[in-house]
Amino acid sequence: MVWNTLDNMDLAGKRVLTRVDINVPVENGVVTDTTRIDRIVPTVRDILARGGKPMLIAHFGRPKGKVVLDLSLRVVLPALEQALGHKVRLIETLEGAENLTDEAKAADVLLLENIRFNPGEQANDPEFAKRLADLGDIYCNDAFSAAHRAHASTEGVAHDMPACAGRLMQAELEALEAALGTPKRPVMAVVGGAKVSTKLDLLGNLVDQVNCLVIGGGMANTFLAAQGLNVGKSLCEHDLADTAREIMRKAGAAGCEIILPADVIVAHEFKANAPYETLPAHACPDDQMILDAGPQSVARISTALENANTLIWNGPLGAFEIKPFDTATNAAARHAARLSREGKLISVAGGGDTVAALNQAGAADDFTYISTAGGAFLEWMEGKPLPGVAALTANA
């Protein structure tokens, strides 16, 4: 993939339409997690330092093309200004952006009101995209997390003006290219979570791309059951047994080793500190459920990590939300983190549960790259084209 970055652009005196993701959690009118805001700071400051005038474009919630006052971006202004160290002026309508007041023109940073208040945004209406393009001189997409949406502000506008990737988008694309585009082999993937049904495309793509695939969490139970093993009361999609066997067959044909739990942690109930025991994977009692991978499984995963040069991680290995069923996830994550810290492993991780699990394990800071992009990260792992990225590539 080839795309322009801010380094390819002359920003001096230019209005830079900058698509960002500041769709942050809010409680009682206060932003409770500024992670997404913090991640756009390098791009905005870079534009300002090089003489550009950023106009931020963002969505908030799902207003579905209507003005919903409770979903106004006004609520993020204090956190945004604190993070940027600059005053930010909210422009409430597209008409207001098209006819900026002298005061607005003098502001360091402009923020266009929730772009999804406009029906043309999610419809990717060409006329609406053209109106957006007419607001500035250069388009900068710094919202990889929205790149899987073909919306006017993520895809359409990139066809109407010079376009580039912001620093966050650039970092994300470079990390993903290193992990699956032109990776240093062997490549290992860890895929966990509750259900196989939500990750069929992902598994189907990965077995052709990676050398080793670890399957964990509830979805591992489906694969164990597909091999004829009893999984008791465990979460399991028995109706996907044929699909699981087909994925294993495809992996074998592609030379991809699949690692399933060799031993498991079982309990009668899913609650914190429930009595549990460690058993071989084939010995789950009828009245118990598998809630984590056992120590033999962790040892096997650790060995695979030692032999890998690149790791892609999506999803936990067990019911990490409650102790002691976070043990396998914590142990494997910390091992991957140590190898990454020592420069022996390129590690890229993403997905909501994944980020939470790696943070809980105290491993996130040592991973090479942690994506907060959610759906876009998953679709990239599935091998699907991302419209926002494709538009930047076409523009370059």
Which terms summarize this structure?
Rossmann fold; 36% helix; six-stranded parallel sheet; alpha/beta; 2 domains; elongated
Written description of the protein model:
The protein is of the alpha/beta class. It folds into 2 domains: 6-167 and 386-395, Phosphoglycerate kinase, N-terminal domain (Rossmann fold, 3-Layer(aba) Sandwich), CATH 3.40.50; 183-362, Rossmann fold, CATH 3.40.50.1260. The chain has 15 helices and 17 strands. A hairpin with an 8-residue loop joins β12 (263-267) and β13 (276-280). The longest helix has 15 residues, at 35-49. The protein is elongated, with a radius of gyration of 23 Å. The mean pLDDT is 96.
Strand order of the largest sheet: 5-6-4-1-7-8
Beta content comes to 15-25%
Percent range for helical residues? 25-40%
Tally the helices: what do you get? Answer: 15
CATH class call of the largest domain = Alpha Beta
- Give the helix/strand class: alpha/beta
| CATH 2nd-level architecture of the largest domain | 3-Layer(aba) Sandwich
